Each structure stands twice: as structure tokens, then as C-alpha cells.
Known about the structure:
The protein is built from 13 helices and 19 strands. The chain is of the alpha/beta class and 460 residues long.
Amino acid sequence: MGKKKSGASSMEAQSTESVMGRSGNGSTDTDIVIVGAGVAGAALAYTLGKDGRRVHVIERDLTEPDRIVGELLQPGGYLKLMELGLEDCVSQIDAQQVYGYALYKDGKSTKLSYPLEGFKSEVAGRSFHNGRFIQKMREKAASLSNVRLEQGTVTCLVEEMGTIKGVQYKNTNGQLVTAYAPLTIVCDGCFSNLRRSLCKPKVEIPSCFVGLILEKCELPYKNHGHVILADPSPILFYPISSTEIRCLVDVPGQRVPSISNGEMNHYLKTVIAPQIPSELLSAFMVAIKKGHIRTMTNRSMPATPQPTPGALLLGDAFNMRHPLTGGGMTVALSDIVVLRDLLRPLRDLNDAPALCKYLESFYTLRKPVASTINTLAGALYKVFCASPDPSRKEMRQACFDYLSLGGDFTNGPIALLSGLNPRPLSLGASRIIFPIIKAEGVRDMFFPASTPAYYRASVN
């Protein structure tokens, strides 16, 4: 066996190891190994399996996840879900249709509707319990005979002479197993243990989310997400079932008040509660009293591809943005569509160097959609946060006033936000947006057809 590129502990001390999926002549009975079966991994497994690939998915925990993020799918993401044949995964989970946003500032509010004219009636955003959605996609992937979904903890990538040949993992029996395949796709999420083997990540932590669930109350604007431009930073509300409303309180920086010593309760009651819309205040206070308070660190990480023969990164393991705009799942599903279309004409994945060169075009072709959503998320978070800087205060107020105009004035920005029209040239530039665009890569984002990888994909 070749050397290992370690992710978590390499478990070298174990003396026995079984090797599977590889015959004596070096061929495998698996085309693609996928690490992780979250939104990206499960959707990818179904997509590639449906195209006839033999897929082996290894997921650390196949029980239903319980998270406070990944609960809002923008309409653009729903369109990608339809394109992948996965739209039924939002049915029978009490998912709620979302038709836009309500924006609050200083006691005033405005409704921003998604520009859904011209789309089928079912096209809208969807909000739901993240775990229910993921379980539906896992079931869909596992229903294909050529997709194997297995619980196991991947410990490292297996490398031979600079090429990733598969992964080593510990199965539920405690055995160390090696799974080989011509292509390994790492989708192990925001806490990825393997991304450092495939890129040089620059992870930033702009803030944390504090999550509560409100019950027995109605949102002021039905079937809309609510964004409160609070001090110090935004507060979000959106339905996740027919009886529950998710509240996410953004706390800037890397530290949140302690839940265990009562700091969090005090902060929510004294700093946040006075800024909550009156219709939701009573349910908000009840949620604090119940004490089911969750926290989640928000991460931002530009995509920094480092093409590696035999392997690819996808999902939050590869690219993250502030979750304020709920764009993460839209980016992941869009990336899967791009990757599916690139892989479809390839019958043989065994020429690792040639495949690696060919898949460089993936990084180019994903840029316009991903960078638009990433840029908008970063820009809006900065604009929506309170600041003592007079120019930032003016920008925040100007943004609210402009969006309050409604109609054609807001259709453009909301089409970008929703993923319905993720076109970089629609973003324009400002003192806040341009530095983010620069980090994403101006040429790749605005002019993907001018990059060499684009032409390689076009002619192959």
C-alpha cells in the first residue's frame, strides 16, 4: 500500500488492515469514493449513481444530523435540486415554502419578494429541519443498487506516487479498511479533517450563530425569512416546520457568552430581546427559558483549489461563506451539476493525471455562480452589521432605504441573493464588495471563458 495523507489520527498502531475494492491487476470495483454523506455528499452520490457510476460513500455517522444551519434552501438551490432529480427530498419532511424576506431596521420593516415570475409554481425557497432533508437524500442515494452507503470514520487519504488512490477508514466493527477508487471526492463538511491534504485553506471566523426554536407563534410576514438589522449584528427568523420558527442570533467574533454560567441568558434577555419584533417577543422569551440554546461557529473560506490527481474537494470542505444569506446549499448543488456534466462523457476514470487536468475546468466553470453568492454573503454581512463608523452607518441605512423601494429596484439584488440570477456582472462594485471580489479572483469570476481550463473542458 502507498503512503497515507493523514486527516484525523492515522491509526498506524493497528497491526491488521483489510484491503477491499482492488483486484490483483490494480483495477477496482468502485468508480468513485465519496467521503461524507451530508447535503453535498448524499446529493453527489445519487447524481453519480444515477449516471451509472459505482459509488462507495463513507459517512462518519448515518443517524439523523441535528444542526442549526443548512435549514434554508434558496429558490436557485431548489432549481438545482430539480435538475438533479432530488426535489422530492423536500416533501414529507414538513418543509415550508419561502417566498422572500422581511427586512427590519429601527422598528420599520419592508417585504422583499423573490422574483419568481416565469418559474413553475412549485419553485420557491424551502426551509426545513436539516437532518430530515439529509436523511431523505441518503435514502434516495442508497436506493440505487450501484451506490453503497457505509458508516465509517475516514482516517486518511491513500497516496501512491503523488496520486490519491482511495481512503483508509475504520468501519463499525473497528477494523481498518482501505477503499480504492480512481477518483475520491471529499465532502466531509466545514470541520473537514482531510482538506489540508488537498488545499491550503484560509478559514476565517467572522461570527457565531446562537440558535433557538420558537413555538406557538406566527411570523409577521408568512412564508418569509425575517432579517433584523440589530446591534451588534443581524438576527434571523424563518420557519423550519409548520409549528417551529428558527431564530439565529449572530454574535460577532469567535466567542459567544457562556451558556453554562448564565451569561447567554442574560445577553439574550438584555441585549437581543429589546430588538425582537413584538409579535415574536413572547415566544423568544419562552425559548430562552426552555434553555435549548445551540451555538455554531460561522466560517468563511474562499475556494483555494490545489489540483491533486485522483481527488477532488466539494461542499463546505472546499468553499464556505457567511451563512447569513443561506447560500451554502445552492453553491454545493450548483457545483454538483457542473461536476456531473463534466464527468458524463468520461467512461474511464483511471488515467489520474489526465483526469486531474480535465477537472481543472471544474474550478473555472463553478466560479460565476459560487463567487456571486459568496461575494454577496460577505458584503451583506458587513453592511448589515452595526458600526460606529459614520460611513458604514450611512451605507447600512442606504441599503435598507433602497431595498424598501421594492419592485424593480429590489428584483435585481433579490435575484442574486436567491440564486435565481447568480451573474457576477450584476453585483457591481463598492468599497465593501470589491475586496471580496478580488479574493475570489476577478478573472475567474467575471470572465471564466478566458481561462485556459475552460477551453480544455470545451474541447474534450
